């Protein structure tokens, strides 16, 4: 069997076009232009790229985007005061504080300070609670993107056994809730799960959100499963890369390692997944592309929800 590749680009582009249309309607019907403010602290290079993408995409879709950049040594109280200021502004519908934050900052306290109505990352306890209750809420972007990929690729969820490997607050747990809300039968696995392959092999839909390159192998995948790879890892070891990629793909990957020192790899061994699964999301080019599109969708949703629309 060779898996069908579930590419993220076409789906992300459709979502972005729909969001752009919604923004036009909001302007025409209600005179509203949604606003998103992204707060970045310090000089983490990956955060800088992520924030750049978010601000650029917002602007392209017609969202008023703003980037607040604070020094790495900002105090907890200064950061909380920044959040308070954004909570109070009527022109700001969405607030996102880019993680990770420096060690002097209590990230949970900052995330909990964001007005839940403006919490476009969906990490505030009020939104986590609403998601568990199955109520309308702002939902974490990456797992919400996975649901969009499944639905828009016509992969049935209701009644299927979905197994998630990973139980983080930002991916694994909200992923489980979203799949449950879509009527899947859900199993959550983690580092203390005994005999992981015996469980993951039962999955109709297997979601890997682990943070370990190529961890999910043929022995974990049931024949014909849909495998969703959320992982993003940098691999620079060429011998390890050769275990992950077929020869034609390997050529591209070697070039990446040569040019920038690493290649992007998910939490699933792609060569083995392609042989066993029926559907597979690639890395890069899969789930990762949905995250920013879902953030844009959440910003419009926040603008609507704040006005009871
Ligand atoms: P975390 O490190 O917070 O969580 C990893 C989870 O994997 C934990 O629940 C952990 O279990 C579990 N785990 C670790 N080792 C094993 C193992 N050997 N067997 C079974 N389970 C294991 O990671 P995140 O959830 O933040 O991220 C997961 C992946 O998704 C990463 O690769 C990250 O880069 C990527 N990511 C991608 C995004 C995107 O936009 N595409 C966005 C966010 C993340 P335990 O709880 O027991 O420790």
Features:
309 residues; alpha/beta; Rossmann fold; 3-stranded parallel sheet; 11 strands; 46% helix; binds NADPH dihydro-nicotinamide-adenine-dinucleotide phosphate
Quick synopsis:
The protein has twelve helices and eleven strands. It is an alpha/beta fold and 309 residues long.
Please specify the SSE layout and strand pairing.
Elements lengths: L3 E2 L3 H22 L4 E7 L3 H17 L2 E7 L5 H13 L5 E4 L9 H7 L11 H9 L7 H12 L8 E5 L6 H10 L3 E5 L6 H5 L4 E4 L17 E4 L3 E3 L2 H7 L2 H14 L2 E3 L4 H7 L2 E2 L7 H19 L3
Helix pairs in contact: 1-12, 2-12, 6-7, 6-12, 9-10
Give, in order, the helices and strands.
EHEHEHEHHHEHEHEEEHHEHEH
CATH architecture of the largest domain: 3-Layer(aba) Sandwich
Tell me the total number of β-strands: 11
Strand content: 5-15%
N- to C-terminal distance: 47 Å
- Ligands bound to this protein structure: NADPH dihydro-nicotinamide-adenine-dinucleotide phosphate
> What is the alpha-carbon Rg in Å?
20 Å
Number of domains: 2
Main sheet strand line-up: 1-11-8-7-5-6
Globular, elongated, flat, extended or rod-shaped: what is the shape? globular
Helical element count? Answer: 12
User: Helical residue percent?
Assistant: 40-55%
Average residue-wise pLDDT: 97
Fold-level CATH name of the largest domain? Rossmann fold
Low-confidence stretches: none
């Amino acid at each position: 069997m060779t898996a069908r590749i579930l590419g993220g680009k076409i789906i992300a582009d459709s979502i972005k076009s729909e969001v752009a249309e919604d923004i036009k309607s909001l302007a025409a019907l209600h005179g509203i232009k949604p606003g998103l403010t992204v707060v970045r602290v310090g000089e983490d290079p990956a955060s800088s790229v992520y924030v750049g993408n978010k601000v650029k995409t917002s602007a392209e879709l017609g969202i008023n985007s703003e980037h607040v950049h604070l020094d790495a040594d900002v105090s907890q109280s200064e950061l909380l005061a920044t959040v308070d200021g954004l909570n109070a502004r009527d022109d700001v519908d969405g607030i996102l504080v880019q993680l990770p934050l420096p060690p002097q900052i209590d990230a949970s306290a900052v995330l909990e300070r964001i007005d839940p109505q403006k919490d476009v990352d969906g990490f505030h306890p009020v939104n986590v609670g609403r998601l568990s209750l199955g109520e309308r809420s702002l939902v974490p972007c990456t797992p919400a993107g996975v649901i969009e990929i499944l639905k828009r690729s016509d992969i049935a969820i209701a009644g299927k056994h979905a197994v998630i490997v990973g139980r983080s607050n930002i991916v694994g747990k909200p992923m489980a809730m979203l799949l449950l809300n879509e009527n899947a039968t859900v199993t959550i696995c983690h580092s203390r799960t005994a005999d992981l392959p015996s469980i993951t092999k039962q999955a109709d839909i297997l979601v890997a959100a682990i943070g370990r390159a190529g961890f999910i192998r043929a022995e974990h995948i049931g024949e014909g499963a849909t495998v969703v790879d959320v992982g993003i890892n940098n691999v620079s070891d060429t011998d390890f890369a050769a275990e992950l990629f077929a020869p034609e793909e390997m050529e591209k990957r070697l070039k990446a390692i040569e040019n920038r020192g690493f290649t992007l790899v998910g939490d699933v061994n792609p060569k083995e997944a392609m042989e066993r699964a029926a559907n597979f999301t690639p890395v890069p080019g899969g789930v990762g592309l949905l995250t920013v599109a879902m953030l844009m969708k959440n910003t419009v949703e926040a603008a609507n929800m704040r006005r009871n629309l």
